[in-house]
Specification:
Largest sheet: 6 strands, mixed
Strand content: 25-35%
Shape: globular
Distance between the termini: 42 Å
CATH architecture of the largest domain: 3-Layer(aba) Sandwich
Strand order of the largest sheet: 6-7-8-3-9-10
Number of helices: 10
CATH class of the largest domain: Alpha Beta
CATH superfamily of the largest domain: P-loop containing nucleotide triphosphate hydrolases
Number of strands: 14
Number of domains: 2
CATH topology of the largest domain: Rossmann fold
Order of helices and strands: EEEHEEHEHHHEHEHEEHEHEEEH
Length: about 290
């Protein structure tokens, strides 16, 4: 099982949304990180055949992205997913099953199975317009699984889910990655940190890092610092550096910062996390960095 992305590029006039991206994805969970405008959604839409690249190629096991056989192996949950508010959850699943070419009896069986998987079986006959944002998101994940896809692309799949639901879906996505390629894009860094076997980092349309969590965070070794200082000193440091965490402690103000050198004499180096890396690359530019 191999999804090959070869020099994938997308131009919008003078803007380069994706710049010569090359990847080889195998079964497992891939976490895609990047700020708004980094090119994540453009990449995912090209992988789904929704958006044609300016140039470059996409193949899954030798099948081109433009072939019907490729789409048969694909499940996709876009960030902005359209629902029919007057449909019930079951009607919606059956409608999507028809679009994906499932036989009637298999469609009914699979719809019930997946609604149970995402804990919507008890509201299967209720109209989608009555659903909360989290329930709609669960329904979106269910429809993406209707055709047992070998490639599953999820753009912000845990948006709108409460913490308990997010943990449940993280576990489900991790399980799905045992038998297929799962590409997960989210701004919730902890979701990727907990389940992605490989992390992809995009910035300005380019893939700037890819590797395991340990490989990725090695980039910011010796660049994460903690200290407890006075309020006045804390204000000064927050103006100069990328501050990840700030809280009031008995001894003053506790700060966690990412910067290339020791930000103040009180600062002590600490171990890095994926959230540290994200803020190092994507927070606003600071004069102290």
């Amino acid at each position: 099982m191999e999804l090959i992305v070869d020099r994938l590029t997308k131009h919008y006039g003078d803007i380069i949304a994706a710049d010569r991206i090359s990847l080889a994805l195998h079964q497992g969970v891939y976490g895609l990180l990047g700020a708004n405008g980094a090119g994540k959604t453009t990449l995912m839409r090209m992988l789904c055949g929704v958006l044609r690249p300016t140039f470059g190629e996409i193949h899954f096991n030798g099948i081109d992205v433009n072939q019907a056989e490729y789409r048969d192996k694909l499940g996709y949950l876009p960030q902005e997913f359209g629902y029919y508010p007057e449909f019930t959850a079951l009607d919606f699943m059956l409608y999507m099953a028809v679009l994906k070419g499932l036989p009637k009896l298999r469609a009914i069986e699979k719809a019930h199975e997946l609604l149970a998987l995402v804990s919507l079986e008890n509201v299967a006959k209720k109209k989608i317009k009555t659903f909360s944002g989290g329930m709609k998101q669960r329904l979106g994940i269910a429809q993406a699984l209707l055709n047992d896809p070998q490639i599953l692309i999820l753009d912000e799949p845990t948006a709108g889910l409460d913490p308990k639901e997010r943990v449940r879906f993280r576990n489900m996505i991790s399980k799905l990655g045992e038998t297929r390629i799962v590409l997960l894009s989210t701004h919730i860094v902890s979701d990727i940190e907990n389940i992605a076997s490989t992390i992809l980092v995009m910035k300005n349309g380019q893939m700037i890092h890819q590797g395991s969590l340990q490989d990725i965070i090695r980039v910011i070794e010796h660049k994460v610092w903690v200290c407890t200082v006075s309020q006045a000193k804390a204000d000064e440091l927050m103006r100069a550096y990328s501050v990840i965490n700030v809280r009031q402690d008995e001894g003053g103000v506790f700060l966690r910062m990412v910067c290339d050198k020791r930000p103040c004499p009180e600062a002590v180096e600490t171990s890095a996390s994926l959230e540290d890396l994200y803020l190092y690359y994507f927070s606003e530019e600071k004069t102290g960095e």
